[in-house]
Amino acid sequence: MTIQRDEEMDSIKVRNIFWTMRMNLATLEAFLRKSFISPTLQKADEIELGFLGIQSKEDQIKIHNQSIMRIQIALLFQALDNYFEMIKINPELRDQDLNAILDQFGNIDEFIGGMRTIRNCIFHIQNPNQREKQSLATFDEVCNQKGGSLEVLCKLRKALYQFTEKCFFGELRVFPNHVYDMMENEKPEILERFGIRKPEIKKPLSK
Amino acid sequence: MKKSTKIKQLIEYQLLLQHSFHLRSTLHIAHDRYLQFEKTIQDFEPSDALFRDDDWMKIQIQTSKELGWFSTKMLLDLPQEIKQYHFGPQQIAFCLLYAMIEKYKSIMQITPLFKDENIDKYCYENNQFIKLLKDFRNSILHPRYDNSKKQVKFLEEYNNSDKPFLSLLIKGEVLFKNFLQRIWHLGIKEQWEVTHDNTTR
């Protein structure tokens, strides 16, 4: 009885974290879409972003884009942290495709540590200590090797969304079975409303 | 004043200045998202002032179209997500404001230079708002089982408070900018110039 109750509690926790992850991804989306200012397309003299002590329009654009990038990384870290928390509670949710993406970034602890440092700088205005500066340097180095911060960010973001898609469609089981049964019956109607293809509800991967 | 204290002041100032840039950029994004939301809802007439789930579904479809359908993956989800897309940056701005208040309170005790009467007055007069900000910020950064309760509480207060939260957010940002400008001229500038001279020699 106690074990069953613990499993139910774990399932509820995982679902709560899952929705938190989706919220973090939604907020990340808001910072990603049409948020950067192009120094070439935008007329510099029309820009007035109001940064204290920054007179040059070009510098204002640069600072804005850097800020937005850092905030995006902080939010992505939040979503990634949610994923790690979910698989800690339920290792069966481990996504091989997402893990393969993360493996591309070398020492994952250092890489994630760099993202965490950025998150702490943004949300706690913390001055990184020596170790944190090292992980930040590792993160920046990896991003430079892999095509830039934006490239890395978009790759991870896409992988996280695809993870959530697997959870929605049942390949990774976050919701109770009866929910997937209901979605299988109702999904065609929802998808018709959006006018897109009709994916099948997948059976869970065999152990 | 000891040189080490001056250097510490300069470091703290630079952190706060950088943070003020993050907050300002976030406010710009929040404003853009709000304008986009206004534009999106102009395309259809919501049933009443308080959006029902059906209305949010329509907004969701419309926003998904604007964002490119499947590339967003925000297609099969609760209305909360589309709300989060439009109002998430504003929420982040609240978190960043709280971070500044928290940082101010800690460094103000270290050095009298950083004490600001206007910020102290703002914090005193809006104590309840700041407590809500703290809970709200923590619910975003450190998810717990009671996250949604704290976030709902914040949103309820946001909608019902006699002091509009958005005004407090903007006022807070302006106060901190003025504060940074003031202490720059009171001593930080001098230390920055000394440090800059030393590093360029």
Q: Can you tell me about this structure?
A:
The complex is a heterodimer of chains A (207) and B (201). By secondary structure, chain A is an all-alpha fold. In chain A, 70% of the residues lie in helices and 0% in strands. Chain A contains seven helices and no strands. In chain A, helix 4 (108-124) packs across helix 5 (130-145). Chain A starts with a helix and ends in a 13-residue tail after the last helix. Chain B is mostly helical and 201 residues long. Chain B is 79% helix and 0% strand. Chain B contains seven helices and no strands. Chain B has helices at residues 3-42, 53-67, 79-108, 117-125, 127-141, 147-160, 165-200. Chain B is elongated. At the A-B interface, helix 1, helix 2, helix 4, helix 6 and helix 7 of A face helix 1, helix 2, helix 3, helix 5 and helix 7 of B.
Unreliable segments of 5+ consecutive residues of chain B:
70-76
Multimer state: heterodimer
Gyration radius of chain B (Cα, Å) is 21 Å
Separation, N- and C-terminal Cα atoms of chain A: 25 Å
Number of helices of chain B: 7
Q: Mean pLDDT of chain B, nearest integer?
A: 81
Structure summary:
Chain A has about 210 residues and is an all-alpha fold.
Which labels suit this protein?
heterodimer; A: 207 residues; 0% strand; disordered C terminus; B: mainly alpha; 79% helix
